[in-house]
Amino acid sequence: FQAFKKSKEVMQRFVRAYQLMLRFYGIILINQETGELKRAENWAERFQNLNRFGHNNLRITRILKCLGEMGYEHYQVHLVKFFLTETLVKGTLPNVKSSALDYFLFTIRSRRKRRELVHYAWQHFKPRDRFVWGPHDKLLKYR
Description:
The chain has about 140 residues and is mainly alpha-helical. The protein has one domain (about 1-140). It is about 65% helix and about 5% strand. The chain has eight helices and two strands, in the order H-H-E-E-H-H-H-H-H-H. Strands 1-2 form a two-stranded antiparallel sheet. Pfam families: OGFr_N (PF04664).
């Protein structure tokens, strides 16, 4: 991975490949610097595909791990938060929820960012007393 990361061309291709996969899932990378995402115009159609075919969740987990390996941890955070928002807040991806909580969250390399996302998930999870991805006493005190 180190040789790949040193090549500007490889890294540009990597980001283009990431954008291609995002579009397949109905997501657009709106800021290459920060990794900020939004729904694509065809999001409803693409989300139907995500809800119907669970094998996509395995691909998303691999994408997230690869983002971390290639030095795009900030992209990981935005993608995981995007899926947490769509599953827990907006309810558009109910069949992705368990993968988002069980796998996507724990691909985040930064302990601090992972804690922030676990707290975000806990805040939006219903019913809250069934949340098993972090200790409730610590989540209550988290700032």
